[in-house]
Amino acid sequence: MYPTYSLCRYNTDFGQEKEILKWITGYLDATKAGLLTHVMGDGGPVNVVYSSFDWSPNA
User: Fold this and answer.
1) Between the CA of residue 23 and those of 18, 38, 44, 56, 57, what are the distances in Å?
2) Are 48 and 3 in contact (CB under 8 A)?
3) Domain parsing of the chain, residue ranges
4) What is the pTM of this model?
């Protein structure tokens, strides 16, 4: 999973990693959402790597 770093930076708005992943499932297609839900419910670790966010288009 490679969400943007802004989700981590503003985790008070989005929640901790597990809450962020649950939130993301609402924006995925059914297959990917089901897979992510299964992986999160498996009890094993979920590796979240935050990608950088390019603010230049907003400048």
Assistant:
1) 9, 14, 19, 26, 25
2) yes
3) 1-41
4) 0.60
